[in-house]
Amino acid sequence: MAPVRSRTGRLRPVLIAAAAIAVVVVAAWALQAMASGGGESSQGDSPPPYSVSVKRGGEVLKTYDLAALDSLPKVTTEMSDKEQTGPTLAALLADAGVSSYEKIDVRGAAVRDEGRLSLTRAAVERRVQLDFSDRGTVKVCAPWLEREEWVRDVLTISVE
Amino acid sequence: MTSSPSVSSSAPSRHPYIWSLSLRDLLLIALVAALCMLAKQLLRVPINVPGHSGVLWVALFVICRGIVDKRGTGVLLGLIAGLLAQFAGFGHQGPFEWTKWLAAGIVLEVLTIVLPGDLRGFGKAAVVGAALHLGKLAALTLAGLILRVPVALLLLGLGWSATTHVLFGVLGGVLGALALRELRKVPFLDAQARGG
For residues B138-175, b (16+ Cβ closer than 10 Å) or e, as one string? Predict the structure, then answer.
């Protein structure tokens, strides 16, 4: 019976480590639920919900949460064998009251990409659009942009 | 074949540290670190599942720690991979890119030492793979906090990310264990793993 006991003894730390990993994953889901619940109520310790701000010269012209972005007219374009759906950048800027500009700077969270992209007005008007991601954020993309140039988790769009 | 380190009676000689690394060990660690970068680039495919590229590099981490069985190898591997990622322009964490690789290396090292058995065991390799991949995600999240990424954004999809990181980590760990079993049949590599 000794070998059996030894094997059980060796298995226990592995099982404890596996349980610890499971606890971490559950905690991650709980934090995610807390974050996504932040949009329902702004009170308590929930972090503020995700939003995209359109700025000019540091001044915020308009801030969009996901619902506000969703209410804008949307286009669907196939890019990298996947349909990307969301408002065009031009439509978003027009909605924010931006009529004249020469270039824009898009800034994202830079967690999963460079998180920055500068576009001239002519480039913006070449079907650059937003797309709603599964994470509950938006990205800026276009068929003519390299995938590496896309900005995920967009936070601000600064107009110059 | 060697017996498990945990059941060895001659503990001091069974647990050499990284200061006893040979040139061959160092070359192997550097090679694996470079292969990790290559694997990450090769597997960066648009399937929209976070952590999928970890399958290969987690396996490589496990293989490297299994072949160079000296304490501290995991940390050194993480550090070299981190420096490569930082200065070769891989990743997007700016000045903190190296931290996720180092975190993975530290978790690999700690669990390899703490858990009994060696990395050819599927259970241990799976747990180590999952934990080190999760360690990388934790470092990534921490770097986001330091870089002042909005907390709401960091937490969005964190549960999904953690789950997929664990799953791909388990897969990578098991692949690593499988590869280690085969590699240890090669006399030269088996001798390498035993510090020969």
Answer: bbbbebbeebebbbbbbbbbbbbbbbbbbbbbbbbbbb
Q: Say yes or no for a CB contact (<8 Å) between B123 and A14.
A: yes
Helix axes B73-87, B23-42, angle to 10 degrees: 50
Strand partners, A60: A55
DSSP structural state of residue A151:
B
Q: Which whole-number Å values give the CA distances from B124 to A68, A120, B119, B182, in the listed order?
A: 48, 53, 6, 17
The predicted-structure confidence for B152-194, as pLDDT tens digits, reads as follows 778 878 898 999 999 999 999 999 999 999 998 888 777 777 7
Place of tokens 């000689």: B13
Contacts of B6 (CB under 8 A, 6+ apart): A10, B116, B117
Q: Is A19 exposed, middle or buried (0-12, 13-18, 19+ CB in 10 A)?
A: exposed
DSSP label of B45: -
Q: How far apart are the first and last CA of chain B?
A: 13
B155 in contact with chain A, both atoms CB, cutoff 8 A:
yes
d(CA A123, CA B118): 56
CA distance B65 to chain A (A): 17
B113 touching A (Cβ < 8 Å): no
Rounded alpha-carbon distances, angstroms, from residue B196 to B14, B33, B143: 12, 22, 39
By Cβ distance, the residue of B92, B111, B152 closest to A35 is: B152
- Residue B58, min C-alpha distance to chain A (Å): 16
Q: Which residues pair with A108 in a beta bridge?
A: A154
Q: Are strands A51-56 and A59-65 parallel, antiparallel or unpaired?
A: antiparallel
Contact A154, A140 (CB under 8 A): yes
Structure tokens at B53: 């590229």
What pTM was computed for the model?
0.74
Strand, coil or helix: B71: strand
**ipTM exceeds 0.95:** no
Residues 6+ apart with CB under 8 A from B33: B77, B80, B81, B84
